[in-house]
Amino acid sequence: MGSLSNKRVLLGVTGGIAAYKSAELIRCLQGQNAEVRVVMTPAATEFITPLTLQALSGNPVSLELLDTAAEAAMGHIELARWADLILVAPASADFIARLCHGEGNDLLSTICLASHSPIAVAPAMNKHMWGNTATQKNLHQLREQAVHIFGPAAGYQACGDIGEGRMEDPANLCSMASALFATGLLSGKKVVITAGPTREALDPVRYISNHSSGKMGYALAQAAAEAGANTVLISGPVQLDPPERIKTITVESAMDMLTAALNAVEGADIFIAAAAVADYRPASVAEQKIKKSDDEMYIELVKNPDIIATIATLPLRPLTVGFAAETENLEFYATKKLHQKKLDLIIANDVSDSSIGFNSEDNRVLLVQPGSSKSLPTMNKVLLANKLIEHIAALLPSSTLQTPQP
Ligand code: C5P
Question: Hey, what domains does the chain have and what are their CATH numbers?
Fold first, then answer.
């Protein structure tokens, strides 16, 4: 699998003889597990039919800005939001000029204007058009605007000339596109992550829970998916939207989370327990709402199963990563937990500092693994998640599955 796994590529096709190569380009992108949607300029449809590109991409091809039916299905702003990358191939001299000047007079240029995602263009034109000062000035400006210029290649041209201006080969374009997405570190790997709190019911309306926001686990799931992993997120009740393109299983109690984790972990390479699992649950759940008849009330609690410790002792287990929230002696307690639970890595944080941890946007962690530890500076949970995924990916052995630690 390539590093375009889980990526959404919006392929813009403009008018030029190289438009026929878009068909092969779609196949290459899909071969790297990208999802592809195509937007064509009117001139492009003179060179290759929308139907061909629709059949190959498996998605409707968008053609016009003012098409009410198409806008109702997925409008230009939604397409701009949808794309992780806009790749315009072939990009004509005219389109390059329009992109450079921020014009929004057709669907593709409007999407480019509305998008925050990276844009790459693969110029394709006659060698004199390519060499023209105006074209070169436009390309210079696009580079300044952080637009990626892929190619062009040199060689035989449809007009009979030989020189620079041929569209770069689809396979090369695919490699250049994947290179834009940093890692692809977990391509072909399966990652299971638990997140959020659990709720332990007392009766039909009451429960015991905690303040975990789920943000760290969700950010890790996003980062794992971004790194190309087939990601399963097992989430307790949180106020976060389920992340796109990640299989999310919602659970309530620790017992439910354990069942979901045991099911999901089959074939997994990595298990990350970011959930704040309740340590105890009521020994019994009242069928009816408990009445406040007495002045005092006692709840009998029983211990919940330790999910991560259960996973860590499976005969064929994934690389197992836990969290430790401590208020003192961070490294000492984290190391103890690492050994007790037989983990490969503990991500420890000091929850006595209210600016980090549980409900905040930031976190500062200490990474503790057998024989070594490393602290990371305070950072946003999303950035931290990317760093953690990089660190965890580097711990993976070349073979997929681990055996339990002695
Ligand atoms: O023992 P403690 O709760 O401090 O351990 C924290 C780590 O263990 C976290 O990774 C948490 O997700 C995991 N855990 C678990 N099941 C439990 C309790 C904790 O997976 N019942």
Answer: 8-179 (3.40.50.1950), 190-400 (3.40.50.10300)
